[in-house]
TrEMBL record:
<feature type="region of interest" description="Disordered">
    <location>
        <begin position="672"/>
        <end position="700"/>
    </location>
</feature>
<feature type="compositionally biased region" description="Acidic residues">
    <location>
        <begin position="464"/>
        <end position="478"/>
    </location>
</feature>
<keyword id="KW-0539">Nucleus</keyword>
<dbReference type="InterPro" id="IPR032284">
    <property type="entry name" value="RecQ_Zn-bd"/>
</dbReference>
<keyword id="KW-0547">Nucleotide-binding</keyword>
<dbReference type="InterPro" id="IPR004589">
    <property type="entry name" value="DNA_helicase_ATP-dep_RecQ"/>
</dbReference>
<protein>
    <recommendedName>
        <fullName>ATP-dependent DNA helicase</fullName>
        <ecNumber>5.6.2.4</ecNumber>
    </recommendedName>
</protein>
<feature type="compositionally biased region" description="Basic and acidic residues">
    <location>
        <begin position="684"/>
        <end position="700"/>
    </location>
</feature>
<feature type="domain" description="Helicase ATP-binding">
    <location>
        <begin position="65"/>
        <end position="239"/>
    </location>
</feature>
<keyword id="KW-0347">Helicase</keyword>
<dbReference type="Pfam" id="PF16124">
    <property type="entry name" value="RecQ_Zn_bind"/>
</dbReference>
<keyword id="KW-0067">ATP-binding</keyword>
<dbReference type="InterPro" id="IPR011545">
    <property type="entry name" value="DEAD/DEAH_box_helicase_dom"/>
</dbReference>
<dbReference type="InterPro" id="IPR027417">
    <property type="entry name" value="P-loop_NTPase"/>
</dbReference>
<comment type="similarity">
    <text>Belongs to the helicase family. RecQ subfamily.</text>
</comment>
<keyword id="KW-0378">Hydrolase</keyword>
<feature type="region of interest" description="Disordered">
    <location>
        <begin position="460"/>
        <end position="492"/>
    </location>
</feature>
Amino acid sequence: MSKTALPLQNVCGTEKKAIKKESLVKLLRWHFGHSDFRGKQLEAIHAVLSGPIPRFYLRVHGLLEFRFRGGRDCFCLMPTGGGKSICYQIPALAKQGIVLVVSPLIALMENQVTALKEKGISAEFLSSSQTLKDKNKIYEDLGSGKPSLRLLYVTPELIATSGFMARLTKIHARGLLNLIAIDEAHCVSTWGHDFRPSYRKLSSLRHHLPGIPVIALTATAVPKVQEDVIASLCLQNPLVLKSSFNRSNIYYEVRYKDLLDDPYSDLCNYIKSYGDICAIVYCLERTTCDDLALHLSQNGISSAGLNGKLRSTILDNWLSSKTQVVVATVAFGLLYYGVDDCRRMQFILGNATKKKSHSSSLEDGSSKKSLADFRQMVEYCEEPGCRRKKILQSFGEEVSSLLCAKSCDACRHPNVVSKYLEELATTTSFRKGSGSSRIYISSASDFNVEERHFSEFWNRDDEASGSEEDISDSDDAVEMAKTAAHSSKTSGRKIQDKIELLQRAEENYYRSKNNTDKQANKVDKNAISGTLRDSGKQRLLNAMKQNQHRFSDLEIDSTSAEKLENDCYKKYEKSGKSFYLSQMASIVRWLSTVSSDELSKRLGNMVGPVTEVVTPGAADYSSPSSSPIVPVVTRVVDEKVSGGIQFAASFSQDTILPPPILSFSEFINSRKASENQPSSSKRQSSDGVRKDLEKKTKYK
Ligand SMILES: Nc1ncnc2c1ncn2[C@@H]1O[C@H](COP(=O)(O)OP(=O)(O)OP(=O)(O)O)[C@@H](O)[C@H]1O
Ligand SMILES: [Mg+2]
């Protein structure tokens, strides 16, 4: 039920007196029903209401010309749900005048304004979603001698318009502006996870509206972001307030993807087990976001992948519960941990560090920090010990693990977690450490693409990056191969070391594989199960049906889906589940852009499901410009050493026997042997990789 506003003179007396705590608590109780302030709320409110503006600032900006309203700038760092809004809502009620609140999302503004109105507090927001009539009503109130409005919520984009700034300047000149609150202030910083260019322009507020205190509020604790926010908003001698990031109502748990049969199904069940909840799932790549969102939707969970353009709309829908799950690409949320993901991230960050070490020291420092943060994250997942303690440590807080009170998996089920960690170490031992036992050889020409951006982490500025890159070579194997390639360019010794390392790794792999094979009753966690394949086929069928409008001249049925799935399976059967899933995601994405012609060509060049034998990669080469599966991950076979392999004269020929594939060691040894041959044949042999590719493309 709505309440009348508490008359100001009853609460605060005249403006000139410092406002006492009791008066502010009275306001808090009357309007919000909270018994007392929590954390640093009161300090923040005192600062913006009564703290002095530094003398030099007054001199420099000639603020004495304006009616001095008092108040000190404040930077307020409180965790999500910590109660930051009160820090500017109470000042709006404690003084005559208006508090201007800058907020990044229309849904956030709407929610807050509705909640304030229900409490009898006069608040409005201005956004493009409003009618002209509504806007004019607000402007009329602002233009009147004594506006009734206490809080006005606006977007940073509106602030950037000259028309709105002119209105603000008038309100300011009439002495009606009390405080400027910049909510979600980390959006100012390019170091933050949610940079909004229009936030960067908010420093204009300081220049156009001098003498008005500014309070910046955020839950993002990274020191670099804090510094950036303070500098970018031109906060003057701000009171910096930081609250603890311990959230006793959050339970932390890590689920190990490598120990799960099907992480997607596990996630579906997990979300369903909580009923009608809102959730955010963070993924490494955009393709995975889209694919997971599709998978969840197919399982009856309304969800949306978060991409650049639709970002605000999706978040708005999520906040208003129209969408249950948002799948986004930022680390550190619910966490499903997979060693493959870890290696992928390690590669991406390592590469960025290498590149940035050649550029400015600032950039170099930031990428090293990213790498250090990432290592911290890996430790969080792979080391025993309280998760809460580790999270707080990363925010610079030293706490006892007793604080956790068994509200993380490591404290509640220490034995289970140690067992998982042991299993994880066993399951992934052949993939971890300095070497890798998964051997992938990529063709020489593939190595040349190292400058291409093949992950959004390298290409985040370019939202419109080519779809072909988006959907193709995003596998660990490619990345590992590129690492090897990079090293090979820099030093001959290094490549020798790398080759030896890979040979050793391969031996370990086969040794461990033999052991695994011997234990017939032991389940291979990375195997691609029949169920997984069935669900894969269904996903492809659904994706094709979703895009049916573009394939109107094609008959889309389960056979087409089986063909695509079968092709993917044939190629990734040995690489394992995670590669298979990743490639399936790529195909789904490809289906969302491919033309009817291309799909028909691709399907036409494939053999039917399961029973027939396919030349590995044949379908890929049939239409290299449009295929989602650029054959960068290939076991390269040297024609000479493989004993005269016969390639099909044309790829329209479906069923030919696959060539025998050499192991890495066999390949290297045969290459060494060929190096001892006369120079003409040596060159031919050492160029085997490139030759093989040329040979294949010749037939397309
Ligand atoms: N002093 C208080 N006592 C009790 N509850 C409070 C107090 N201050 C705020 N709250 C409640 O805490 C909840 C979160 O507040 P608020 O939305 O302001 O948090 P926030 O820090 O802005 O979070 P976010 O980072 O998600 O924006 C609200 O339900 C609010 O009513
Ligand atoms: Mg908030």
